[in-house]
Amino acid sequence: MVTFESLISRKSKVVVVGLGYVGLPLAVHLSKHFEVVGYDLKADRIKELETGYDRTLEISKEDLIKAKIFFTSDPKTLSSCSLIIVAVPTPIDEHRIPALTTMP
Ligand SMILES: NC(=O)c1ccc[n+]([C@@H]2O[C@H](COP(=O)([O-])OP(=O)(O)OC[C@H]3O[C@@H](n4cnc5c(N)ncnc54)[C@H](O)[C@@H]3O)[C@@H](O)[C@H]2O)c1
What we know:
It is built from 4 helices and 4 strands. It is α/β, with parallel strands linked by helices. It has one domain (about 5-85): 3-Layer(aba) Sandwich (Rossmann fold). A 4-stranded parallel β-sheet has the order 3-2-1-4. β1, α2 and β2 (about 35-40) form a beta-alpha-beta unit. The protein is globular. Nicotinamide-adenine-dinucleotide binds next to loops.
């Protein structure tokens, strides 16, 4: 079981899944206190973030480079993380209403 002590001592890792408008700023803030992995499906997004470029313009180059986040698009990395925070888009139906049922 993951504990706050294991997170704050950086023995356990947090992963933020989905590095968009919500996930990236969250990952940057969490990285000030915890060991953070940033995972996104898009390899291009990961490459940009590694160079300090955030196309959403939420995080400055300076802050992004300062943040100690391990960016990856390799899903295997998730298995080394104890806490998973999901920040991926919410699916919507034809009326643009969030589709909160389980996927088929
Ligand atoms: N943006 C907002 O102001 C806002 C406000 C409140 C709630 N939300 C909610 O937060 C969530 C994220 O929104 P956002 O605006 O950050 O979205 P976004 O489109 O900016 O970013 C989503 C990111 O997730 C990645 N992604 C998609 N599927 C993935 C998967 N299966 N695995 C890994 N990465 C994946 C995409 O490549 C993208 O980089 C949504 O559920 C949204 O409804 C957003």
